[in-house]
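yo

u said u wanted the structure for the complex thing, so here. seqs first:
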Amino acid sequence: MSEKIQKVSIIVSKGGLDGVYPGLIMANGARMEGIEANLFFIFFGLDAVLKKRMGKIKVATVGNPGMHMPSLLGILPGVSAMATAMMKRTMDKLDIPPVPEFIEMVSDAGCKLYACKATVDMFKLKKEDFCPQVDSIINVGRFYEIAAGGEIIFT
Amino acid sequence: MAQKLYGATTVDVDAEGFLTDFAQWTREVAAAIAKEEGIAELTPAHWKVIDYIQKDFKENGQVPSIRKLNKSGVISTKELYDLFPGGPAKKAAKISGMKKPEGCV
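structre next:
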């Protein structure tokens, strides 16, 4: 057997449910295996830790080939909301929590959460705009320092 | 099938040391597995988790997830990680005599 992974730092760069969940599941799964884990939210991935947005994240039904749905159908009002509701129900059955609860869970599990300084500046955000689980706003250089010696996963 | 001797009890285990026959589980076996997993002593807080896991498995045929343990008010996620450091779901299941949890969350 190869050597055990000791630490992972996961970058969440995409918004939308399908953009946010993979990183959260990977980070939580790491903690469940006793692996040190960091989450670094950049660009639209930041929605997952913004107080105003985290509870309203939807799955994109337009321009998302993974949805197996014609884009013309996806633009209809309510289709994204419906797809989101369906996905949330299925996930809840699998014990995958909604985003705000998931952020709390992964943080309670000992994962550290960081927001990207460049994105924060770009969208003119402040520390108060983030949920309390966000440890701090850091720049890319600091991220690499924190990630040093471990694996980096980009999602 | 592999066997393991815990105190005076011999139990059947899988390749990772999880019990394959819950009927062989005893509190002494649990304490011995816990020691192997780096938990020196099972406290009442540990037992509360173990009892719930076994009860829930009996009722639902599934090892409860960390989320379920938290939501059902048995133990907060933080405390669970403190009680079973380095892999709470897996370690708690192993000590409880359950199979390895298969879920991702």
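The mean pLDDT of chain B is 93. Chain B touches chain A through 18 residues (CB under 8 Å).
cya
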